[in-house]
Amino acid sequence: MRAIQASTSYSTPIHFGPPSLAASSPRYLNHRHVISAKGEPTEKSVEIMRKFSEQYARRSGTYFCVDKSVTSVVIKGLADHKDTLGAPLCPCRHYDDKAAEAVQGFWNCPCVPMRERKECHCMLFLTSDNDFAGQDQVISLEEIKETTAGM
Ligand code: SF4
């Protein structure tokens, strides 16, 4: 089974990934995330990070995950950090001091590994050769709400 595990304020650990993804690649199974968002982000920040994500996907030639709930949770995690820290600190990492990390900037989205090597461990921005890349560089606010409802 392939699954992304996210632990957020939205819920206890969540497993993502449609059953159709489950059988074909162990990489998905091994690719678990803990999204460290603390609260429900404001709609304004979700919209800002949604637009940013669409623009950066186009600019970098990358695509959203075939499972849009992955994209949605990461966007909401970035939005939460924008609300609480003033910067879109990557939500898929553990930090001893989030405020200091946000000031330092290395993991503010798009992080340095993404900018330099197109490496996004959150699976927000996927290159076309990634097994889990979809074909979309757009995601609506409604999709974000629907795919994270009840989390
Ligand atoms: Fe996190 Fe970097 Fe991906 Fe942004 S680009 S979501 S900071 S891994």
From TrEMBL:
One protein family per Pfam: FeThRed_B
EC number assigned by the record: 1.8.7.2
Keywords recorded for this protein, A-Z: 4Fe-4S, Disulfide bond, Iron, Iron-sulfur, Metal-binding, Oxidoreductase, Redox-active center
Signal peptide, first to last residue: none
Keyword Ion transport belongs to the record: no
Family to which the UniProt record says this protein belongs: Belongs to the ferredoxin thioredoxin reductase beta subunit family.
Main function: Catalytic subunit of the ferredoxin-thioredoxin reductase (FTR), which catalyzes the two-electron reduction of thioredoxins by the electrons provided by reduced ferredoxin.
Subunit: Heterodimer of subunit A (variable subunit) and subunit B (catalytic subunit). Heterodimeric FTR forms a complex with ferredoxin and thioredoxin.
UniProt-recorded name of the protein: Ferredoxin-thioredoxin reductase catalytic chain, chloroplastic
Annotated source species: Heracleum sosnowskyi
